[in-house]
């Protein structure tokens, strides 16, 4: 099996410490030489063609129970925490909830801002799907919020979206 570029082989460790910043990662330079097998499907698509929309967003003050119930009810792997201008300020994933339970649970009054990660890596609709996938691998994440020119959340691309696209193009 080949080595995945950017993958360092280390397992991710989850912690409750949070960094307070949001950034959009510029897509890396991608090789324009593609084999015949790569000329169709996910290899030539943009994030805008692969992403899930509408994306489920919540205010940082939303209770953790409400957010978790929404994720279960709508079969979501993540919700994006947004400010009043719909700009991402955090993300809460199913993995965060599992880590929370493993760490002993949470108070009944907890909000998504208490638990969700506040270092949010984002992308844009025009980013190529391979570049977005590389960003996800580089940051060891499964969910990448998609923002417009003003920084507002317009969608979410996940590792499942890429897998579904690959399955459709087989």
Description:
By secondary structure, the protein is α/β, with parallel strands linked by helices. It has one domain (43-168): CBS-domain (Roll). 28% of the residues lie in helices and 20% in strands. It has helices at residues 47-50, 64-73, 94-102, 112-115, 129-139, 159-168; strands at 21-24, 57-58, 78-82, 88-93, 119-124, 143-147, 153-158. The strands form 2 sheets. A 4-stranded mixed beta sheet has the order 1-5-6-7. Strand 3 and strand 4 form a beta hairpin. The radius of gyration is 17 Å and the shape is globular. It starts with 20 loop residues before the first strand and ends with a helix. 27% of the residues are buried. Mean pLDDT is 78; it is low at 1-39.
Keywords:
single chain; 170 residues; alpha/beta; CBS-domain; 4-stranded mixed β-sheet; 3-stranded mixed β-sheet; 6 helices; 7 strands; 28% helix; 20% strand; disordered N terminus
* Helix coverage percent: 25-40%
Provide the residue-averaged pLDDT. 78
Low-confidence stretches: 1-39
Kindly provide the name of the CATH class. Answer: Alpha Beta
User: What is the count of structural domains?
Assistant: 1
Which topology does CATH recognise? CBS-domain
Overview in brief:
The chain has helices at residues 47-50, 64-73, 94-102, 112-115, 129-139, 159-168, and strands at 21-24, 57-58, 78-82, 88-93, 119-124, 143-147, 153-158.
Topology diagram in text:
Layout lengths: L20 E4 L22 H4 L6 E2 L5 H10 L4 E5 L5 E6 H9 L9 H4 L3 E6 L4 H11 L3 E5 L5 E6 H10 L2
Parallel strand pairs: 1-5, 2-3, 5-6
Antiparallel strand pairs: 3-4, 6-7
């Amino acid at each position: 099996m080949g080595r995945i570029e950017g993958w360092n082989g280390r397992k991710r460790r989850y912690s409750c410490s949070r960094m307070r910043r949001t950034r959009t990662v510029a897509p890396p330079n991608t090789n324009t030489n593609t084999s015949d097998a790569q000329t169709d499907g996910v290899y030539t698509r943009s994030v805008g063609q692969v992403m899930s929309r509408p994306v489920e967003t919540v205010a940082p003050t939303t209770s953790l129970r409400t957010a978790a119930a929404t994720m279960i009810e709508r079969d979501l792997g993540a919700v994006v925490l947004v400010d009043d201008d719909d700009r991402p300020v955090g993300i809460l994933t199913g993995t965060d909830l599992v880590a929370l339970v493993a760490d002993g649970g949470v108070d009944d009054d907890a909000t998504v801002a208490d638990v969700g990660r506040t270092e949010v890596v984002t992308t844009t609709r025009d980013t190529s799907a391979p570049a977005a996938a590389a960003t996800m691998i580089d940051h060891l994440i499964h969910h990448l919020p998609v923002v417009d020119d003003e920084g507002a959340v317009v969608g979410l691309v996940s590792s499942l979206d890429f897998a579904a696209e690959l399955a459709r193009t087989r």
